Amino acid sequence: MALPYTHYYKLSFSALNVKKSGSLHLQPICCVQCNSNFSSSPFTEKHSLQRYQRDQWVYNSNNQKLLSLNSDDRAASCSVPSDSDSIRLNDIALQLPELRKLLEVLKHKRENCGGHVPKNGPGNVFLVGTGPGDPDLLTLKAVKVIQKADLLLYDRLVSNAVLDLVGPDARLLYVGKTAGYHSRTQEEIHELLLSFAEAGANVVRLKGGDPLVFGRGGEEMDFLQQQGIQVKVIPGITAASGISAELGIPLTHRGVAISVRFLTGHSRKGGTNPLFVAENAADPDSTLVVYMGLSTLPSLAQKLIHHGLPPDTPAAAVERGTTPQQRTVFAELKDLADKIKTAELVSPTLIIIGKVVALSPFWPQSSKEASCLVEA
């Protein structure tokens, strides 16, 4: 039977020598990593109490005393070590026993249905896009798959409202990433998907937005297909489409914007600097949508202006778009970074740059400027 982390976690835990060495003291989650200050977020924050309550099945009973504490006791008992890698490895170690048990259960369930468990098994993996946050933007197909899943591996930007739709017998497992903290490496996520698919599970990989737009869904699909696992992709509304619609911004508009370009604000380690595309992206007749671009926006804006985009180009930054916690900043491109800083917007924030932004009914000078644009 395949176990999680066949190729990667064995190396990690043999190196740590968890059982024989005192170098890693496995702490219950109430002492390692919980934080009750994220209750206002519509998403699963990395050390939120909500995350551990949702995924409590994967932690053994010795770690569940957190759930019985009142809020004052939780605040007093929760502390997050500064070493994020130790947090991650401790979390994985706590989860391994229950993950193995679940694999055993799934194996026996298949054997009881008759026949030997084949190597690759009949289990399927679904890559499901959940949209930018509003559960009403889910496709009907996505809802059906979510409600029939055995195991769902979900990212940080899958909204809590979407996770509320999961079936009562399904198991949820957080595998989200934030800047400076990855609960699982991409390779470890691959191994989890493979192990449970081989055990015959109906595995759903939940991703915010669309799984194939800056979601690394292509990497997961490629890995699993090479292992003989069938992968089905259920598209979601990408943030650019969902959030622009929420604000009444047409990404293209005849006579205003003849094309749209999606850009990631950061790249993989060692990859091409996304700011290098500024020369080609500085097109006044196009719309530029920047994902994950808060940290690089000041430099990007300067480069776009340097390469010919007018400084007064309308722009918008939208935090937690389509959720009840949505916040929006409108400004000319030259002022956008400063206004974002003043408003203290946080991730996830989508940035839209282009003349079409002025067509939004929420643009400060919307009626007059929109009329001029359309007439032009």
TrEMBL record:
Domain called Tetrapyrrole methylase: residue spans: 125-337
Entry keyword annotation includes Transferase: yes
Alphabetized Gene3D superfamilies for the sequence: Cobalt-precorrin-4 Transmethylase, Domain 1 (3.40.1010.10), Methyltransferase, Cobalt-precorrin-4 Transmethylase, Domain 2 (3.30.950.10)
SUPFAM superfamilies per record: Tetrapyrrole methylase
Pfam family, one: TP_methylase
Keywords: Methyltransferase, Porphyrin biosynthesis, S-adenosyl-L-methionine, Transferase
InterPro entries registered for this protein in UniProt: 4pyrrol_Mease (IPR000878), 4pyrrol_Methylase_sf (IPR035996), 4pyrrole_Mease_sub1 (IPR014777), 4pyrrole_Mease_sub2 (IPR014776), CobA/CysG_C (IPR006366), Siro_Cobalamin_biosynth (IPR050161), Uropor_MeTrfase_CS (IPR003043)
Enzyme Commission designation: 2.1.1.107
Protein family according to the UniProt entry: Belongs to the precorrin methyltransferase family.
Protein name: uroporphyrinogen-III C-methyltransferase
